[in-house]
Amino acid sequence: MRLLNYIVGGQHRAGAKTEAGIVDLTAALRGNPVEVVDILQRGSHALEDAQECVASARSFVDPTSVHVLAPILRPGKFLGVGGNFMSHIDEVRHLGFKTPEHPIWFNKQVTCVNGPFDPIYAPRDSNQLDYEGELGIVIGKRCRRVSVSDALEMVAGYVVCNDVSIRDWQLRAPTATIGKSFDTHGPFGPHLVTPDEIADPGALRIRTWVNGELRQDGSTSEMIFSCAALISDLSQRCTLEIGDVLSVGSPAGVGGLRNPPAYLRAGDVVRVEIDRIGAIENIVCEEPS
Fold this sequence. Notes:
Elements (H helix, E strand, L loop, with lengths): L1 E7 L2 E8 L2 E4 H4 L7 H6 L2 H13 L10 E3 L8 E5 L3 H7 L11 E4 L5 E2 L5 E3 L6 E2 L2 E7 L8 H4 L3 E8 L2 E2 H4 L15 E8 L11 E6 L2 E7 L7 H11 L7 E3 L21 E6 L3 E9 L3
Parallel strand pairs: 5-16, 7-13, 8-18
Antiparallel strand pairs: 1-2, 1-4, 1-13, 2-3, 5-6, 9-12, 10-11, 10-16, 11-13, 14-15, 14-17, 17-18
């Protein structure tokens, strides 16, 4: 399934995207869930009910009539991983970076969450606005100290992320948190694609375009730490909860490492696409006063 949050007629709804249109799960499911996370929190039986609703649907919402939101509106955790793609490590070796021995986690404040097609703000604080096309994992089961072999069973689904970064603010502190957390700098979606549609999250092509120019073209096969290894590693340190979002790293080609650097400016359009999941696209605009 492809689960999504959307607004239509001023109302928040949870739905499932199909080739025929959107199935309104808020109307179809018991309890009238208004967000995707409401369905996830009800467990596997709710997902099975959602699948039955999709299979038997006879009426659909026109996708062009809705405003699509992030599939998880306010995750409890929104974490990223630095230096997890070999091609990205290769492009920064001249700066002294080495292949990490352990995952390098950083926090994105959840207030940065943004819709998959909503504007990204170019802040007044910096001119080093950059993109990072990434695969995102959404946790579907509360878990602690999960083994690598069991880790993918904790996944509710996968999303397309843009780990938007302000490079000078990112480098001000080892945690990188502030430079990763400006408002609107966490767009993801467009849907939460359940694992039954993704045979292998370690074999997905990731591409990023800026104004139609291909900037990143990589694959999750480049990941130093697999999705399962990342989930297991993080769960050794803290409890993972339903709706937590993990963005697993970016391939080579970010703007700040081009020669000369090619940072984003107002008017630029950034598109990130991942095979079998979909694409998000955001225009950059000046931060409103």
